[in-house]
Amino acid sequence: MRDLSGVFKAYDIRGVVGEQIDADLVRAVGAAFARLVGGPTVVVGHDMRESSPDLAAAFAEGANGEGVDVINIGLASTDMLYFASGSLDLPGAMFTASHNPAKYNGIKLCRAGAAPVGQDSGLRTIQAEVEADTPGSGKTGSVEIRDLLTGYAEYLRGLVDLSGIRPLKVVVDAGNGMGGHTVPTVFDGLPLDVTPMYYELDGNFPNHEANPLDPKNIVDLQAKVREVGADIGLAFDGDADRCFVVDENGDPVSPSAITALVAVRELAKDPGGTVIHNLITSHAVPEIVAEHGGVPVRTRVGHSFIKQEMAETGAIFGGEHSAHYYFRDFWKADTGMLASMHVLAALGEQPGTLSDLTREYNRYAASGEINSTVDDQAGRLAAIKAEYGARDGVTLDELDGLTVRLPDGAWFNLRASNTEPLLRLNVEAADDDAVAAVRDEVLAIVRA
């Protein structure tokens, strides 16, 4: 029996092509997924990585061998696959390793209506069947090629009307990822003067990693925004399900500020609605949601938790610090493209700059995520808990890692990585000096 624990992650399947992931493995996953969902049809899409088309074809062969038909939508962003799953009401598989380096690939799976498949909702079952080399049924299914890019673009434009905004000058850095495929069609005909960067689909990522949360990967975008005098810059990750924003000065706009901005817009359409935010987003998010008559709900980090809370609460929107944005009107799935359209609409519906527009959503200073390599994650977390738990006026919670709230309003979260020997620290406080003081004190204990 094979041990695939290194490939089957909490929310997806991911590994090095040729070493951890190959056509035989993917064929077996396709068969197991077909048995899990029971057919009769699944939809499959893939990103621009060199290995993606062949792996998607192998997955289709596995599903076909269980008598399940496949609709192959070809090149797609992950949120385009969610659109296919939602609009066709079919289970789906997306071949991508998101922002990981070129040697990686993987599979994101969902049930009909873009409902997530994670360890507790089917992925563990698939892993067990693949490890056990469960024999196929010997049935046959068909493959249909279908292009859904235009339908995806039309659906998004129906959710956010950009036709009446003032003309905007926009720089888009697709990072040689799937944004180069989807952005031109989505933005076609809109009052946007787009300067494209790195639209060429290239899974080797020759210009920079397709991970806009890493500051070094938006340097080119920042420079281009300043150079051309753009109103806004947008950067998409490899599978274009996340979008990062920079303002007219080239300064990053935090995903928390984007979460708050979009939440206000969604609450204007649906007063009193629930908005989900993970526990690392700025405290400004629940404050602003409440001020606009909404109901903020705090949850753990990770799309499966966000989507579960959205289903249970009927939430209209959800946001994470990692620039994932979830919409009830998009089958509770995450779509950076739709979030970017909300920001463009908010900017274009008024005469001011993006920095002015987002200033009201930036209330606190933050450290960003700081990683520390430690041998004993649990021991270091226990040391932090003991240190701060003994202080007056401090409150602790362990919803996800350890969150510590200090008497002056500052807070930090320390959580262990699921896949690496790391502790991840996020700090928020009134100003940069206060953030630095808390950060340095916590890291001195963590790295002792």
UniProtKB/TrEMBL annotation:
It holds the Pfam family PGM_PMM_II. GO terms for molecular function: metal ion binding; phosphomannomutase activity. Its cofactor is Mg(2+). Keywords: Isomerase, Magnesium, Metal-binding, Phosphoprotein. It comes from Actinokineospora spheciospongiae. Belongs to the phosphohexose mutase family. Its EC number is 5.4.2.8. Residues 7-133, 152-250, 258-364 form the Alpha-D-phosphohexomutase alpha/beta/alpha domain. Transmembrane segments: none annotated. One of its GO terms (biological process) is carbohydrate metabolic process. Residues 369-443 form the Alpha-D-phosphohexomutase C-terminal domain. Gene3D superfamilies: Alpha-D-Glucose-1,6-Bisphosphate, subunit A, domain 3, Alpha-D-phosphohexomutase, C-terminal domain. It comes from the Bacteria. InterPro entries: A-D-PHexomutase_a/b/a-I, A-D-PHexomutase_a/b/a-I/II/III, A-D-PHexomutase_a/b/a-II, A-D-PHexomutase_a/b/a-III, A-D-PHexomutase_C, A-D-PHexomutase_C_sf, Alpha-D-phosphohexomutase_SF. This is Phosphomannomutase.
